[in-house]
Q: What sequence folds into this?
């Protein structure tokens, strides 16, 4: 801290939630902000094979180590990591710990994905990992531990200790305690044992770690103890009271001039859904979401149509379930019952005929849905229930992957607290 001043100025959220505007803000905040490692700026027209965003990040990483900006822990450590945040008027604390996890390719071990990934981000992260030879950010894994016994071992170990504390741009308070007691570290390792770990966030980074490991194996680095066999992971028990899964609502655009009214949507949904009128105006979203969330039914979605400024509340019927089973017969029943699956595979693809629609704008706050609808930019919007932790467990173990943006774990983990070297 003597080198950088306030830690608040040098941390950042994960690379994939940093907008160009926020990237500029983080750059200006401090010359040692970790954004310069995880998302270094491109220099169009000047970047080449020897000087680019990846090589600059690698150079900075070495420079910061030499200057003492980054310090190496003297002993092997597990890092207890708490996040305190407010949601819907209540204060929560999500408790977990960071450690290295042995990599096992999906389908070959105890690590399970739950969402689809895209090739572009994986190539980007692989370039960064290969050049920097480090995990610059941790993945987020959740694991079954009904009594939270593993975490409690660590909580007992930090009693009376002063944490490192930072506050992020959203007001979330992050506290971290290094634990180097070998008996405690050994006990945690034994408690985790063969527990399955489900990737909650960081799928691209985990698959990147798998690809990097394979590269090293092909280069002749075969020892199972080499650093490339592990990936920095934040672990949270699935029953932790602070584990919050938030919804990801959709603002839709269409490639054609498709701009349906609520009557058009009702007609196309047919007897696959029971329909309720949701009222007029984007502002209705607040009341509608409260109704959907209280009902806790994955088969209920609210659809807004810009053409006549009205909402439709649609709830899946038995007829709709039969059709969903037919059009999504490449997935199991749990997958077919997810709200996001019903929205995309049944409503958008099948009934509205919009299979090739552009990627929606994903938002998490009802206020963002209201603003998006008021803008007039989006022909349709949807309020949809998030998948639960239990959905993640069942679908992942069955070898399935949910549609993109089925879950949103809040808050995001900070980058810049712990870096895992791979050499």
A:
């Amino acid at each position: 801290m003597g080198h950088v001043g306030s830690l608040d100025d040098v941390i950042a959220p994960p690379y994939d939630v940093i907008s160009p505007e926020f990237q500029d803000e983080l750059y200006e905040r401090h010359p040692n902000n970790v954004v310069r490692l995880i998302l270094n700026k491109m220099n169009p027209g000047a970047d080449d094979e020897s000087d680019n965003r990846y090589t600059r990040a690698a150079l900075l990483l070495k420079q910061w180590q030499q200057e003492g900006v980054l310090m190496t822990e003297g002993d092997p450590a597990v890092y207890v990591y708490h996040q305190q945040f407010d949601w819907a008027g209540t204060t929560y604390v999500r408790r977990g710990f960071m450690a290295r996890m042995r990599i096992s390719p999906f389908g070959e071990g105890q690590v399970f994905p739950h969402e689809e990934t895209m090739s572009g981000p994986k190539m980007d992260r692989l370039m960064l990992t290969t050049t920097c030879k480090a995990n610059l950010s941790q993945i987020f894994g959740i694991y079954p531990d009904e009594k939270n016994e593993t975490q409690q071992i660590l909580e007992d170990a930090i009693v009376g200790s002063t944490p490192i504390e930072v506050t992020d741009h959203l007001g979330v308070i992050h506290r971290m305690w290094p634990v180097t007691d070998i008996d405690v570290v050994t006990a945690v390792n034994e408690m985790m044992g063969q527990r399955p770990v489900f990737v909650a966030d960081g799928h691209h980074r985990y698959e990147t770690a798998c690809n990097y490991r394979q590269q090293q194996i092909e280069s002749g680095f075969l020892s199972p103890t080499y650093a490339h066999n592990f990936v920095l992971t934040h672990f949270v028990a699935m029953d932790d009271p602070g584990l919050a899964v938030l919804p990801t609502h959709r603002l839709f655009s269409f490639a054609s001039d498709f701009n349906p009214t609520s009557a058009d949507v009702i007609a196309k949904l047919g007897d696959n859904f029971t329909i309720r009128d949701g009222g007029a105006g984007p502002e209705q979203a607040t009341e509608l979401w409260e109704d959907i969330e209280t009902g806790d039914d994955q088969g209920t979605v609210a659809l807004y149509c810009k053409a006549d400024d009205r909402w439709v509340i649609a709830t899946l019927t038995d007829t709709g379930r039969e059709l969903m089973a037919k059009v999504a017969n490449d997935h199991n029943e749990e997958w077919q019952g997810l709200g996001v699956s019903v929205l995309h595979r049944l409503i958008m693809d099948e009934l509205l005929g919009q299979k090739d629609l552009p990627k929606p704008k994903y938002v998490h706050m009802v206020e963002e849905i209201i603003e998006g609808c008021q803008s007039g930019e989006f022909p349709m919007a949807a309020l949809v229930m998030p998948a639960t932790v239990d959905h993640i467990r069942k679908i992942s173990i069955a070898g399935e992957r949910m549609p993109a943006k089925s879950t949103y774990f809040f808050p995001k983990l900070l980058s810049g607290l712990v870096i895992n070297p791979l050499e």
Remarks:
- The CA atoms of residues 6 and 208 lie 31 Å apart.
- The radius of gyration is 23 Å.
- The chain has a mean pLDDT of 93.
